[in-house]
Amino acid sequence: MIVEKMMNTAIQEHTFTKKIGQTVYVVRYHFNEDAKETMQEKINRMLVTEASRVEVQ
C-alpha cells in the first residue's frame, strides 16, 4: 500500500490499517507499558461506568 510505504518504520510497530469501503484508515496506537490494569480490564471498567451513567438518566 502506498500509505504504508510513506510511514516511518519506527511508527509502523504500533500501527495497523483498516479498509472500510473505498477508504483506508491508518490507526496508530500507544499505551503505557507500566499501566496497572490490562486493556481488557480498562474496557470492562469503562463499559460498567458508561452503563451506570445511562441507567441514571
Task: Produce a short descriptive summary.
With 57 residues, this protein is of the alpha+beta class. It has helices spanning 2-6, 9-12, 39-56, and strands at residues 15-20, 23-28.
Structure, described:
The chain is of the alpha+beta class and 57 residues long. A two-stranded antiparallel sheet has the order 1-2. The chain has helices at residues 2-6, 9-12, 39-56; strands at 15-20, 23-28. The termini are far apart. The radius of gyration is 17 Å and the shape is flat. The protein contains three helices and two strands, in the order H-H-E-E-H.
Give the strand order, joined by hyphens, for the main sheet: 1-2
- Beginning-to-end CA distance, first to last residue: 46 Å
Number of strands: 2
Helix content: 40-55%
The succession of helices and strands, N to C, reads HHEEH
Class derived from helix and strand content: alpha+beta
How much of the sequence lies in strands comes to 15-25%
Largest beta-sheet details: 2 strands, antiparallel
Low-confidence stretches: none
Number of helices: 3
Radius of gyration: 17 Å
Averaged pLDDT: 81
General form: flat
Task: Provide tags for this entry.
3 helices; alpha+beta; two-stranded antiparallel sheet; 2 strands
Write the layout of secondary structure elements.
Elements: H1 2-6, H2 9-12, E1 15-20, E2 23-28, H3 39-56
Antiparallel strand pairs: 1-2
